[in-house]
Amino acid sequence: MNLDILTRNIQKKNLKSRILLLTVSLALSVIYTKSTILKLILCSLSVVPLAVITGGLISEISNFIGPKKGGLLTATIGNIPELFMGLWAIRYGMTNLVKASLIGAIVSNMLLVLGISVFIGGVKYKEQRFSKIAARLNFNQLVLALSAMVVLATLNRYAVITEHNMLKISLLISIVLILVYLLGLIFSLYTHYNLFVISEGCDEYSKFNKNGTVYLILEIIFITLVLYFISQRLIASVYSFVNEYNFKEEYMGIVLIPILGNIGENLSSIIAACKNKINLSIEVAIGSSLQMTLFVTPLLIIYSYFSGGSLNFLFPNFHIILSGLSVIMSFLVFQDGKTYWMEGAILISIYMMMVIALYYI
């Protein structure tokens, strides 16, 4: 039995090594490629396997710490590629790309990822139940982030605000959002942890293995460092592609960046739903959107402010409508504590309509 486990572990490590070698080869090949489109494709392909490996490593750690903390950890590590891409995008002056990636994260996670998870899980299990309290708190915090967008859009519509003052207001709002995000973590992980205790497979989690967990963490750190440098190549390729082909920067941010940056956690969410762990699936998908709106984007705005950038919290009205519709439709699906495959199909169809509409703006 132990020999079989050891053999499987060796096979996993060999597979990871091959994938890492392939990823590095793709990234290095960009240096010798002159075609802008080919550079973009190679960089995109090099991000995917790293994100997938990271998602798998985090899923292993989740077996030790449960769905709530596991979902939080998955969302946190899963958003690292988007954080890196955002930092490089600010350096390249692509603030519209950063803003669009936030909208894309909300739309993608709320509609596409949750839609696929609910659809596949619903087909396999007919009905899946989850904690309504956890879902309600997450949606309340998402509405808070949307409120910040609405307030600034309204202020810009009915008052004359200079660009400098708009940056100051965005900085203050970012600090408030980060504080609320931290308070939410304290609420759900410590002071009111009992409200989020769920029964799905609670006795199935593995015993804590210190050495194994340390090795997993070291792997995640190494892959994160590789992602940082590949993210720079990807954003540089996007920058060249947008300028050379006059392509829409916002469309790239809403569609391409969220899919590439979150593919690891997206797969984790879908796999969790397939295993009837819908609570973990929801925590990963909604937790990712929460971190993007309440932590990652505010962090990027703070970085932009002190580095002389122009990133703020003022979003186009159409993007705010898309985000609001995504959150509302997801809330309607998850308000009763159970899901069916048809609800997943509805969420996916709304995402497809939004993507089509975005292309023609």
Describe it:
The chain has helices at 2-29, 36-65, 67-78, 80-91, 95-125, 132-158, 163-191, 210-245, 249-274, 278-306, 317-334, 341-359; strands at 128-129, 338-339. The chain is 82% helix and 1% strand. The protein has 361 residues and is an all-alpha fold. The protein has one domain (2-359): A middle domain of Talin 1 (Up-down Bundle), CATH 1.20.1420.30. Residues 1-11 and 198-206 have low confidence and may be disordered. The protein starts with a helix and ends with a helix. Strands 1-2 form a two-stranded antiparallel sheet.
Cross-sheet strand order for the largest sheet:
1-2
Summing up helix and strand content along with how strands pair, one would put the structural category as mainly alpha
How many structural units, i.e. domains? 1
Largest sheet: 2 strands, antiparallel
Oligomer: single chain
Order of H and E elements: HHHHHEHHHHHHEH
Total DSSP helices: 12
Q: What does the overall shape look like?
A: globular
Calculate the mean pLDDT score and round it. Answer: 76
Give the total of beta strands.
Answer: 2
| CATH second-level architecture | Up-down Bundle
Q: Superfamily at the CATH H level?
A: NCX, central ion-binding region
Kindly estimate the percentage of residues that lie in beta strands according to DSSP: under 5%
